Amino acid sequence: MNEAALLIAATIASGTPLALAGLGLLLNEKAGVLNLGAEGMMLVAAIAGFATASLTGSQGLAFAAGAGAGALMAVAFGVLVIWLNTNQYATGLALSIFGGGFSAFVGVAFVGKTLGEPVQYAVPLLADIPWLGTALFRQHPMAYAAIGLTFAIAWFLYRSRAGLVLRAVGESPESAHALGYRVRLLRLAAVTAGGALCGLAGAYLSVVYAPLWVEGLVAGRGWIALALTTFATWRPARVLLGAYLFGGVTMLQFALQTAGVQVASQLLAMLPYIATIVVLALISRNPTWIRINMPASLGKPFHPGT
User: Fold this and answer.
1) For residues 295 and 32, is the Cβ–Cβ distance under 8 A?
2) Which of 22, 114, 162, 178 is most buried as measured by Cβ atoms within 10 A of its Cβ?
3) pLDDT value at residue 177
4) CATH number of 2-293
5) Is pTM, for the whole model, over 0.90?
6) How far is 137 from 160, CA to CA, in rounded Å?
């Protein structure tokens, strides 16, 4: 019974960075911008957050540094694709490759270092509830922040005027421009906010989830977060549920090893990525369903006055 509670707690912890990054990419895509650079942004944010935490001892500053690093890279991406009209796919891939190399270069001095024993968090009173306390109420505050952000972004997109404008920009930037909205600035704002959320995800990985730095720490989570937006059909609540699903698959490999299941560790490590491919393959069987839910101008450049 307690093992199940621990597995649920580990699932939430593992799914939190996927949820944060997935929500950030969702904002990008709702504005019509496809950013394939999540992996690179998360890596740069991870080293920025870890270096800050290592030098200052402050998690708050570490998360701020991670969010700032992610936002800065997103701004660079946004300027290239929104103003200079570079190809979104190629620019995103370049950003991802750059982030991997840059984080490895900057992080040389921090390889092998750790942040010491992690702080144990608990929600007062609720953490003492048998089973539920262990499963749900002993998480890092960022795990609860991810849940709060899910509801906040859902409200913003579907209940606020600003969210309606953002979705209009993603559906038909020409119409939004004709109505007087500054499409390019709105897209840049969405891209920057999305980059900041990817940055929080990267900082969470290096500061909380695995409080150490090694090259390639993100380990493909940026790509899984990117797949999550399609898996969730561009809905914030589904992004959160999908993140926990993939987090659970990730934790399953450790649960199976602990239970003594004789399966090669390499095969178990492949499970999250196999699950990603299977889910995308199943979704792709109904292209009409994807087309109905996908922002109509996703990945398409916008040229004012043309």
Assistant:
1) yes
2) 22
3) 93
4) 1.10.3470
5) yes
6) 31
